[in-house]
Amino acid sequence: MIEELLEEILTKDYQKPIAKSWYLQPLKDVENVCYRQEIFEDLVNNQKLLESLRDFTEKMEDVRRILRMTKELGYEVNKKGWFLEAGFLYCSTIEKLSIFLRHVEINSSGLVNFRNYLNRYVSSVRYTALKSDCELVRNIIRDVKYVLILQPGQVTVKEYENEEEYANAIEKTFQKFKEEECIEKYRFNLQKATGMNHIEARIVEFLKTIQPKVFQLLDEFFEKHETFLDETLDSISRELTFYTSYLDFVNRLGASGLPFTIPKVSEKDKEELIINTFDPILAAKSGGHVVQNDVILKPGERIMVITGPNQGGKTTYARLHGLLHYLAGLGLPVPGSEAKLFLPDGIYTHFERQEKVESQKSKLEDDLIRLKTILGKATQNSLLVFNEIFSSTASYDATLLGKELIAKLSNLDCLVAWVTFIDELSNSENGKVVSLVALVSPEDPSIRTFKIERRKAEGKAHAFSIARKYGLTYEEIKRRLSNESPVA
C-alpha cells in the first residue's frame, strides 16, 4: 500500500532515490512528529515559500546531475567546463534562496535553523571564494573570441583580429524566417549536447595554444573547488524534497476539493477523531472522486469491528485507518478536515492470503500462526488491522475464535480495526468494542454507498432486504410454489 501511495507522490524521476527513504521511516515520538508538522505548517501557509524551496531542491538536483555527468565525460576541458557550470548554478541557487529567506516570515524551528545556517554559509570564506572565482572564470571564458575558418575537409582556428562579424549578415539573410507564421511552422526543439565530439575537442586544443591563460584559470578553478558542494546543504535539499513532494501531492488532490489537515497526535490519549477522511490512493487514481468518511473512537473504545455487505468499502476503510496513523507518524498532513490521532509504536496487519496448494498448512492454520506472530510483537501502544480472518472455517468456529481474540485484544488494550463477516463480534457487550457498518442505499439495498457509520450490525436485515427485492423471501417462494401446477 505504501509503495502504491509513493507512486502517486513521487512523480518526478529524481524524487524517488532522494525522498523515498523518508517515507519509509515513521517516527516514534511526538516531539519529532511536531518538528515536521511545524515545517509543514509554514509551507502550507506560505505558497511562495513552498515554491522557493521546491525550486531550491530541483536546482540542487540539477547540480548533482551535472557533477555526476562530468565523471563520465572523456575530454578534460569538457569535464571542467561543465564543472564550472555546476558551480555557477549552485551559487546562483544558494544566493537566490538566501535572499528570499531573509524577507519571509518563518515560525518552525527547522526552517529557522536552516535559514540561519544558510546565512552563515553565504558569508563564509569558502562560499565567497567559490562565487567570486566562478563568476571570474565564467566571464573570462564567455568573452573569449576566436576565428573559425571552415573549408572542405579542413578547420582552421586562429586568433580574433577584429574581423567582420557575420552574425548580422546571416540574420539579415534569414530574416523572413523570423516572421510569426514561419516561426510556428518550422519550430522544433534543439537538444543541447553535453559531450564533445573529436572535432570540437581538436578546436579546443588549438584554442589552448592561442589563449593558454584562460584554460589555466579553468584548471585552477577545478583543482581549488573540486569538492565545492556543501554536505549540510546537500543533505537539507534532499530532506526538503520529502516535504515539497508530499505537498505537491496534497495540492493536486486539494484542487478537487479534498481536504488535508495537520493532525493532533498523542502517545497516551487513544481517543480519536478524523472528519471527512478518504483514501488518498483511490482519490489520486479517480481524479478526486471518492467518498469521505469519519473515524471516531470515544474514551475507552479500542476495537472497531466493521461489518456489512461485500464490496461496500469495509476493507478500504480499515486500510485507510492504518494509513492515517502511518502518515501521522511521518509528521505529514492526513486526509480529512480535522484529525486527532494516537501515535502507535507499530502497525501490524493481517489480510487474507490465497491458500497455496503446495503448502502443508491449511488456511486456518496459517491465519492462527500469523496472528500468534502479531500478538507476540504487539503492545498496548500498537495498532492492528485485520481483514476477514477465520473466513476459511465454519461460522460457529469463526465466531468462537473471534470472541477469544477480542478478549485477548481487550486485555492488551491496543487499537484494532477489524473487518469481519461475523456480526456477533460487533455486538459484543465489551465496552472496548464499537460496531461500524458499511451502508447501502435505503431505496435499493444492492447499491453500495461506501459510507461507514457507527451502528449496530444488521447483516440479517440486509440479507432480508436483498431477498425481498428479488422476490426470494420465504413467504414469496412459498406462495409461488403453491400456485404452481402439479407435474403430470
Automatic annotation (TrEMBL):
<dbReference type="GO" id="GO:0005524">
    <property type="term" value="F:ATP binding"/>
</dbReference>
<dbReference type="Pfam" id="PF00488">
    <property type="entry name" value="MutS_V"/>
</dbReference>
<dbReference type="GO" id="GO:0140664">
    <property type="term" value="F:ATP-dependent DNA damage sensor activity"/>
</dbReference>
<keyword id="KW-0547">Nucleotide-binding</keyword>
<feature type="domain" description="DNA mismatch repair proteins mutS family">
    <location>
        <begin position="301"/>
        <end position="482"/>
    </location>
</feature>
<protein>
    <submittedName>
        <fullName>DNA mismatch repair protein MutS</fullName>
    </submittedName>
</protein>
<dbReference type="InterPro" id="IPR000432">
    <property type="entry name" value="DNA_mismatch_repair_MutS_C"/>
</dbReference>
<dbReference type="GO" id="GO:0005829">
    <property type="term" value="C:cytosol"/>
</dbReference>
<dbReference type="GO" id="GO:0006298">
    <property type="term" value="P:mismatch repair"/>
</dbReference>
<dbReference type="GO" id="GO:0030983">
    <property type="term" value="F:mismatched DNA binding"/>
</dbReference>
<keyword id="KW-0238">DNA-binding</keyword>
<dbReference type="InterPro" id="IPR027417">
    <property type="entry name" value="P-loop_NTPase"/>
</dbReference>
<dbReference type="InterPro" id="IPR045076">
    <property type="entry name" value="MutS"/>
</dbReference>
<keyword id="KW-0067">ATP-binding</keyword>
